[in-house]
């Protein structure tokens, strides 16, 4: 930004282009352009004073000088409009420049203060409302953005400011007063803001849209010539991108949480928090000249920390509005009892959401994730969100920002990560200041102690101020009670006195006592008796309330409710409580009765929107026995008389029973087997609403009830086995509908671990001795079975023991099979729930226990299923997500992550347990050929076809270093064992060794004579081995770079399939240079035809099925006798590979599509070439005759289809529209089968009637395929050939 600077003589000069952090306070001029304006070039060549517009410059400079400002800005001359890049930057920054100005002067050239009405009074107001300034497009943001605007007449006389003239401005423009008064613009709808410019005009029609950049805080390139409609279309698209981006954040609104907390606590009382503003710690933190970047407010439970922070937020918001919104304020309230807001990820979502709303240009840091399709809600959410927040903090345009986080101690998930991030950000920018609160926890103190510039405000050390604040709170609550209950003065004074004497500076104690006194069932004359029964101290109060529950008529039921609320992993709904807690039928059938029971536990629990929460984390701590008071341990013993295992057992068993009763196939009535999860709408009422918690967490409670003193009982094993045998597929469907499939995979793995007889380390000495292994397994199973019956008080007999060993072995086998089944189908069931009964079952091994148990659930519309393996193979799971082929994979050192590099130019990092994609790394310009983790797992190196190596930080996904130096693609990368060096092998026939710290290359190893395919270090790092394309291996000394040894001695998919006309046989052509003919009924190979010299690209039967034609890379076509397997004819003369062959309907001609862009038509009797058809721009991939043989269709790599006249060879039609190569063409039949099936566009689905019905796992996807009615044959790149037949009832 350039500014004009006025000196004390009145002379004006133009400053250099100043960076944002070097801009001094300045004034800014707003006006309408006229003749003789001073331009940038006029200031440069010294002719500015000769122009009429210089008077405006002098006016603005003089007025700024009078207001104590020596710098000012004017649009006519501070922008070099001849520089397109500078003009674009200026127009995108204009709103911000006006908003940041200390003062804005509006010069109205058509308003005179000398005008008078008939009575001699000033009449400029009419001219003011009709001023041209209010009709111009660009002046809209100049009106909205500045905090202080002064309006001047043509005589340079001040007419008033935006505040004093707001009603006249509102009448002139129709802009709401709230917008003029500084309310945040997102408070107004898109339509409302668009309407503000509707009646305004601009010289260039596109500027009408461009003048709204600041109003919507978007940045866009200028495209003059696109027209008004085009400009507004782009503007709306940009706005919608930001809206979609914020929607992806899926944040709870901290503003609503704050409002809810204040209302739940009876309102925010100013006298309860004002005291903090006078404390030295707060004043030092607030002082902008201070280097203090963090204020930690700490205190014991119930001391009012949350309400104190609510008050601080209100004060900061007030000052921000008064200062013209020149600062940001983002805050978050953690609550351990609410799973939405008790974790570090939720904190980041809330802070980012508020920052993005207050300074929308910061959304760009989110857009780099969302625009690339990266999720902000998967297992990698923490990494992505922390990277976004860091990016916002480091943004040079970031305003001074206050970040407030309440109750760090109640961030129960990933608290250490959050503390670490706060420490990092505190050291990153002086423009960011934190306020955090928590209990007096040592682990929090140790983390925050790392920050050098910080203050600590202890509520215990400010006991006098806190006591006074509590006294104000008591006064407020007593007045409310007095009005509610009609206390006389004596009662009111007694209540006030007792509360003041016993509160001990604890807001929560006062609130809980007042809540009990407000009970409608408490009569006024009972007040004092009830009041004196409340002991001082929070724990003592909880103890008394526990005693009250213990003495009630519903004590047992209330204790069961409290016990369940204490152990569940998230707050649960009333309906879920009915599922998990054993209660009388009349209560279970009426949620209103349960609400009454929750209110009986009101000292501990509260109900919000039918979800049950603890009133405060301290209440949960008390019931868990964590409080210091002895009564806490007694309360724990009361609600857990048989330990937490017994309650976990109840939750587990009731969950299993409820799921067994409710879960069924297609519970949401989706019907279509390919119905996608993102199109599913939860029905009302939701059939899963009572078991949502159970579906996700039943295994967790099973694990919690299994401890050293309580081993799994036989009846539990039986229940688990029955559930898995009868409901497993329905459970997987439910998990998909609940968007919890990954959690389900982890749950079944937990169950498998729970049942595993021993650890791998125990088995290691026996792995080479099968007999000893079996004995070990039986011995451990026997010991485990004995423990199982401990709680029953007796040990089994030898005979019953054998039966139990067998039964437990069956359960282990079933769980292991269920785990493999879940891993294999996780991705597709997650995307399409009903594929659990289609693809998941169809492609499971025939020996899978789950497949056998659920055979009756197999889709009835599949008449002939593909031949699959008998047992699970060594492949645990298939990870999908890359857009093109995967070139390299590598495990992290701990085995918990897997990296993959792909031709789609990305690297993905996967969670090996669940199969979820944690991170997608982008930055390479071409395919990624090699990936490897550093020995500590903190870095990842990637080598690419773009000739570079990149080193990535695996935690944040940031690229740390790009190494350049290779002349061709990098094929392999490897870290040295100490992680200090990196070796890279390249197509340029060299190996380079790099220093990973500096990025400098240390050594180049030459002498290969061929490209380097692979490199690896020896375990001691002293040698390096390289594998080459010339079939040799070289071993190098890494110290000297000398080649120590060269080792010599090294010496290979189905490309096409076709049905015979009767469908009884199938032909397949392969890369192995052979053709196979298969029996489609049995899957038996009938014949292997050999004779081609290279891979077979295409096969086709003659119409009578007696001949078979094959086209090959060896540039020939062979015609075979299908009965004998004899080669009848070899057609030569192509000059290029044969990609496709097809017979005419009468079998007399054969057409071939070639790699040389042509099609040839042959006489099958003589073998003579009848016609060569030319016209395609690239190779022809597929050809097909029309049913009458008069036309031929061809599909090509040039993305077109051509239709030819077979008699003349003339091209009749060229069909365009495909975005990539055409792989297959076919004519429709005269009477098309209504139920015709085929492959989807990406070949991952089989489609019937236009709908996805069966998903194909990667290993079953076609390299080629053929369709005959409702029968589909697929030839896989793996060499597998299979056929599926569908019924007409699909």
From TrEMBL:
<dbReference type="Pfam" id="PF06985">
    <property type="entry name" value="HET"/>
</dbReference>
<dbReference type="InterPro" id="IPR056884">
    <property type="entry name" value="NPHP3-like_N"/>
</dbReference>
<dbReference type="GO" id="GO:0030621">
    <property type="term" value="F:U4 snRNA binding"/>
</dbReference>
<dbReference type="InterPro" id="IPR027417">
    <property type="entry name" value="P-loop_NTPase"/>
</dbReference>
<dbReference type="InterPro" id="IPR011041">
    <property type="entry name" value="Quinoprot_gluc/sorb_DH_b-prop"/>
</dbReference>
<feature type="repeat" description="WD">
    <location>
        <begin position="1089"/>
        <end position="1130"/>
    </location>
</feature>
<dbReference type="InterPro" id="IPR020472">
    <property type="entry name" value="WD40_PAC1"/>
</dbReference>
<dbReference type="InterPro" id="IPR007111">
    <property type="entry name" value="NACHT_NTPase"/>
</dbReference>
<dbReference type="GO" id="GO:0035097">
    <property type="term" value="C:histone methyltransferase complex"/>
</dbReference>
<dbReference type="InterPro" id="IPR019775">
    <property type="entry name" value="WD40_repeat_CS"/>
</dbReference>
<feature type="repeat" description="WD">
    <location>
        <begin position="1047"/>
        <end position="1088"/>
    </location>
</feature>
<dbReference type="InterPro" id="IPR010730">
    <property type="entry name" value="HET"/>
</dbReference>
<feature type="domain" description="NACHT">
    <location>
        <begin position="293"/>
        <end position="439"/>
    </location>
</feature>
<feature type="repeat" description="WD">
    <location>
        <begin position="1173"/>
        <end position="1214"/>
    </location>
</feature>
<dbReference type="GO" id="GO:0000398">
    <property type="term" value="P:mRNA splicing, via spliceosome"/>
</dbReference>
<feature type="repeat" description="WD">
    <location>
        <begin position="1005"/>
        <end position="1046"/>
    </location>
</feature>
<protein>
    <submittedName>
        <fullName>HET-R</fullName>
    </submittedName>
</protein>
<dbReference type="InterPro" id="IPR036322">
    <property type="entry name" value="WD40_repeat_dom_sf"/>
</dbReference>
<dbReference type="InterPro" id="IPR015943">
    <property type="entry name" value="WD40/YVTN_repeat-like_dom_sf"/>
</dbReference>
<dbReference type="GO" id="GO:0017070">
    <property type="term" value="F:U6 snRNA binding"/>
</dbReference>
<feature type="repeat" description="WD">
    <location>
        <begin position="1131"/>
        <end position="1172"/>
    </location>
</feature>
<feature type="repeat" description="WD">
    <location>
        <begin position="921"/>
        <end position="962"/>
    </location>
</feature>
<feature type="repeat" description="WD">
    <location>
        <begin position="879"/>
        <end position="920"/>
    </location>
</feature>
<dbReference type="Pfam" id="PF25173">
    <property type="entry name" value="Beta-prop_WDR3_1st"/>
</dbReference>
<dbReference type="InterPro" id="IPR001680">
    <property type="entry name" value="WD40_rpt"/>
</dbReference>
<dbReference type="Pfam" id="PF24883">
    <property type="entry name" value="NPHP3_N"/>
</dbReference>
<keyword id="KW-0853">WD repeat</keyword>
<dbReference type="Pfam" id="PF00400">
    <property type="entry name" value="WD40"/>
</dbReference>
<dbReference type="GO" id="GO:0046540">
    <property type="term" value="C:U4/U6 x U5 tri-snRNP complex"/>
</dbReference>
<feature type="repeat" description="WD">
    <location>
        <begin position="963"/>
        <end position="1004"/>
    </location>
</feature>
<keyword id="KW-0677">Repeat</keyword>
């Amino acid at each position: 930004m350039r500014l004009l600077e006025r000196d004390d003589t009145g002379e004006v000069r133009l400053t250099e282009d100043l960076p944002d952090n070097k801009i001094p306070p300045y004034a800014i001029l707003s006006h309408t352009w006229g003749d003789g304006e001073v331009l940038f070039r006029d200031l440069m060549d010294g002719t500015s004073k000769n122009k009429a517009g210089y008077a405006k410059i002098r006016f603005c400079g003089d007025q700024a000088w009078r207001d104590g400002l020596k710098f000012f800005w004017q649009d006519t001359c501070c922008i070099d409009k001849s520089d397109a890049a500078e003009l674009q930057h200026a127009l995108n920054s204009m709103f911000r420049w006006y908003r940041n100005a200390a003062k804005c002067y509006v010069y109205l050239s058509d308003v005179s203060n000398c005008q008078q009405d008939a009575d001699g009074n000033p009449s400029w107001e009419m001219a003011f409302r009709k001023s041209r300034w209010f009709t111009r497009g660009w002046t809209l943001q100049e009106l909205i953005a500045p905090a202080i605007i002064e309006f001047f007449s043509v005589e340079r006389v001040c007419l008033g400011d935006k505040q004093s003239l707001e009603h006249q401005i509102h009448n002139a423009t129709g802009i709401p007063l709230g917008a003029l008064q500084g309310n945040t613009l997102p408070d107004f709808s898109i339509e409302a803001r668009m309407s503000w410019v509707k009646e305004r005009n601009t010289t260039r029609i596109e500027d009408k849209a461009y003048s709204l950049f600041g109003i919507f805080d978007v940045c866009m390139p200028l495209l003059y010539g696109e027209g008004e409609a085009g400009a507004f279309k782009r503007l709306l698209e940009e706005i919608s991108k930001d809206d979609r981006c914020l929607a992806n954040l899926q944040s709870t609104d901290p503003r609503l949480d704050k409002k809810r907390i204040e209302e739940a606590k009876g309102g925010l009382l100013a006298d309860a928090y004002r005291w903090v503003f006078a404390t030295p710690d707060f004043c030092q933190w607030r002082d902008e000249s201070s280097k203090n970047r963090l204020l930690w407010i700490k205190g014991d439970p119930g001391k009012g920390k949350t309400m104190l922070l609510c008050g601080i937020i209100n004060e900061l918001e007030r000052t921000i509005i008064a200062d013209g919104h020149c600062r940001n304020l983002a805050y978050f309230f953690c609550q351990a009892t609410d799973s939405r807001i008790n974790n570090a990820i939720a904190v980041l979502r809330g802070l980012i959401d508020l920052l993005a709303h207050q300074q929308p240009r910061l959304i760009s840091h989110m857009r780099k994730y969302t625009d690339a399709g990266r999720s902000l809600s998967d297992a990698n959410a923490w990494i992505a969100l922390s990277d976004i927040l860091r990016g916002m903090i480091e943004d040079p345009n970031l305003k001074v920002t206050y970040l407030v986080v309440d109750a760090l101690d109640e961030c129960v998930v990933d608290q250490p990560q959050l503390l670490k991030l706060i420490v990092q950000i505190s050291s990153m920018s002086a423009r960011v200041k934190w306020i955090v609160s928590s209990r007096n926890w040592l682990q929090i103190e140790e983390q925050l102690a790392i920050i050098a510039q910080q203050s600590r405000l202890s509520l215990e050390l400010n006991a006098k101020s806190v006591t006074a604040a509590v006294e104000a709170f008591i006064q407020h609550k007593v007045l409310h009670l007095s009005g509610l209950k009609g206390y006389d003065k004596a009662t009111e004074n007694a209540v006030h006195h007792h509360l003041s004497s016993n509160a001990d500076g604890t807001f929560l104690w006062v609130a809980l006592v007042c809540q009990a006194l407000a009970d409608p069932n408490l009569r006024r004359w009972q007040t004092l008796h009830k009041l004196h029964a409340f002991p001082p101290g929070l724990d003592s109060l909880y103890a008394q309330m526990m005693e009250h529950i213990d003495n009630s008529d519903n004590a047992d039921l209330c204790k069961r409710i409290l016990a369940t609320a204490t152990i569940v992993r998230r707050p649960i709904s009333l309906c879920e409580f009915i599922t998990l807690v054993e209660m009388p039928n009349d209560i279970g059938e009426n949620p209103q009765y349960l609400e009454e029971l929750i209110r009986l536990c009101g000292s501990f629990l509260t109900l919000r929107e039918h979800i049950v929460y603890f009133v405060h984390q301290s209440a949960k701590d008390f019931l868990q026995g964590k409080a210091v008071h002895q009564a806490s341990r007694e309360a724990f013993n009361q609600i857990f008389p048989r330990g937490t295992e017994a309650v976990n057992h109840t939750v587990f068993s009731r969950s299993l029973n409820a799921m067994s009763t409710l879960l069924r196939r297609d519970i949401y009535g989706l019907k279509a087997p390919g119905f996608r999860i993102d199109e599913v709408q939860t029905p009302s009422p939701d059939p899963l609403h009572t078991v949502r918690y159970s579906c996700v967490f039943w295994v967790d409670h099973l694990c919690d009830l299994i401890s050293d003193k309580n081993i799994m009982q036989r009846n539990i094993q039986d229940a688990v086995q029955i559930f898995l045998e009868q409901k497993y597929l329905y459970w997987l469907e439910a998990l998909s509908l609940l968007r919890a499939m990954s959690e389900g995979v982890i749950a079944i793995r937990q169950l498998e671990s729970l049942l595993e007889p021993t650890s791998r380390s125990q088995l290691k000495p026996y792995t080479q001795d099968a007999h000893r292994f079996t004995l070990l397994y039986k011995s451990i199973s026997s010991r485990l079975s004995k423990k199982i019956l401990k709680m029953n008080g007796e040990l089994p007999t030898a005979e019953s023991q054998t039966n139990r060993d067998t039964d437990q072995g069956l359960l282990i086998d079933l769980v292991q099979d269920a785990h493999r089944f879940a891993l294999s189908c996780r991705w597709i069931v997650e995307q399409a729930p009903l594929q659990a009964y289609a693809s998941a079952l169809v492609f499971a091994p025939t020996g899978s226990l789950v497949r056998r148990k659920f055979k009756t659930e197999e889709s009835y519309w599949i008449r002939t299923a593909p031949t699959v393996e008998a047992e699970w193979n060594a492949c645990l799971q298939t990870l999908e997500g890359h857009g093109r082929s995967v070139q390299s994979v590598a495990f992290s050192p701990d085995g918990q992550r897997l990296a993959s590099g792909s031709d789609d130019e990305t690297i993905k990092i996967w969670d090996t347990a669940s199969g979820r994609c944690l991170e997608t790394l982008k930055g390479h310009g071409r395919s990624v050929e090699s990936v490897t983790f550093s020995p500590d797992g903190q870095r990842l190196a990637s080598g690419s076809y773009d000739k570079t190596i990149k080193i990535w930080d695996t935690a944040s996904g940031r690229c740390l270093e790009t190494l350049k130096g290779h002349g061709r693609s990098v094929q392999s990368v490897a870290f040295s064992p100490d992680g200090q060096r990196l070796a890279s092998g390249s197509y340029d026939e060299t190996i380079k060794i790099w220093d990973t710290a500096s990025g400098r290359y240390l050594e180049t190893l030459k002498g290969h004579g061929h490209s380097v395919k692979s490199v690896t270090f020896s375990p001691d790092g002293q040698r390096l081995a390289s594998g080459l394309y010339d079939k040799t291996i070289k071993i190098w000394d890494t110290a000297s770079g000398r080649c120590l040894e060269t080792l010599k001695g090294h010496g290979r998919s189905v490309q096409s399939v076709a049905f015979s006309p009767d469908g009884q046989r199938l032909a397949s052509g392969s890369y192995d240079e052979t053709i196979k003919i298969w029996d489609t009924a049995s899957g038996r190979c009938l014949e292997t035809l050999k004779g081609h010299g290279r891979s077979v690209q295409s096969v086709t039967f003659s119409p009578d099925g007696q001949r078979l034609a094959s086209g090959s890379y060896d540039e020939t076509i062979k015609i075979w006798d299908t009965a004998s397997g004899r080669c009848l004819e070899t057609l030569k003369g192509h000059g290029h590979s044969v990609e496709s062959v097809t017979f005419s309907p009468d079998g007399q001609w054969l057409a071939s599509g070639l790699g040389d862009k042509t099609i040839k038509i042959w006489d099958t009797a003589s073998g003579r070439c009848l016609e060569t058809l030319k016209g395609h721009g690239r190779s022809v991939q597929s050809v097909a005759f029309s049913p009458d043989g008069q036309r031929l269709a061809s599909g090509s790599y040039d993305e077109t289809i051509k239709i030819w006249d077979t008699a003349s060879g003339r091209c009749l039609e060229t069909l365009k529209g495909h975005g990539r190569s055409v792989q297959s063409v076919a004519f429709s039949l005269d009477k098309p089968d209504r139920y015709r099936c085929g492959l989807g566009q990406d070949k991952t689905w089989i489609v019937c009637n236009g709908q996805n019905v069966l998903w194909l796992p990667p290993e079953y996807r076609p390299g080629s395929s053929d369709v005959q009615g409702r029968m589909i044959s697929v030839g896989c790149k793996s060499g597998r050939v299979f056929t599926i037949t569908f019924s007409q009832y699909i």
